[in-house]
Amino acid sequence: MVILQGGVGKSTVSCQLAHGLARDQDLQVGLLDIDICGPSVPTIMGLVGETVHKSNLGLSPVYTEENLAVMSIGFLVDDQDQAVIWRGDKKSGMIKQFLKDVHWDQLDILLIDTPPGTSDEHLSINTYLKQVGIDGALIVTTPQEVALLDVRKEINFCRKAGIRVLGVIENMAGFVCPSCKGSSEIFNSSTGGAERMATEMGVPFLGRLPLDPALLKACESGTSFFEAAVETSPTLSALNELQSTLLARIAST
Fold this sequence. Notes:
With 253 residues, the chain is α/β, with parallel strands linked by helices. It is built from 9 helices and 11 strands. The strands form 2 sheets. Strands 1, 2, 5, 6, 7, 8, 9, 10 and 11 form a 9-stranded mixed beta sheet that branches. β8 (136-141), α5 and β9 (165-176) form a beta-alpha-beta unit. The radius of gyration is 18 Å and the shape is globular. The protein starts with a strand and ends with a helix.
């Protein structure tokens, strides 16, 4: 079980990682969206309008592939523009239901997309999963210091909660022109970016994901970036490397 934290492309990374992992037909992959107030996973996964069915085994997740199951509060509201205004105890109850009452079947890996910050959802998921164990947290950031300020807090939260930090990913890390192949730093950091921050905090740095218009289109259309991207895309190469590194770090736990 891997928790993804952040707030700057975290859902994009979690959804594309799920797509990437599911390319291995021998892996059973689950993606759980516990961003109760701002669920974006149904849109990115192309599942808007899907509903959850109940059987004698429990709630059935929505399958985007035969080996990729998805669950989100977005499947349980009638209107995607409807605001979910819940206090902490009700959010915690919903998260518990996602874990206890959903028939996930036999999963090899469960990716959990969390909301930004260190709030009730993070405390709840950590409490409910303590018995079965969490492999670690994957933290997503962008290069600028205003994003890194929050990431430092999230790393400290993981340490206090006893959650291993699998690593930090720097999203939107420059743009490589597909024509001239020149690289531009769109969000330049005044403090050295995620790699320097990770070194200072003593956590692994897993790499950079450059901006890619094809990734935006894939998320907007609800398709897999692995199918939409050109083979020479630096972002595709970075995602493939991230997936391999993630699996290796999970195997070492």
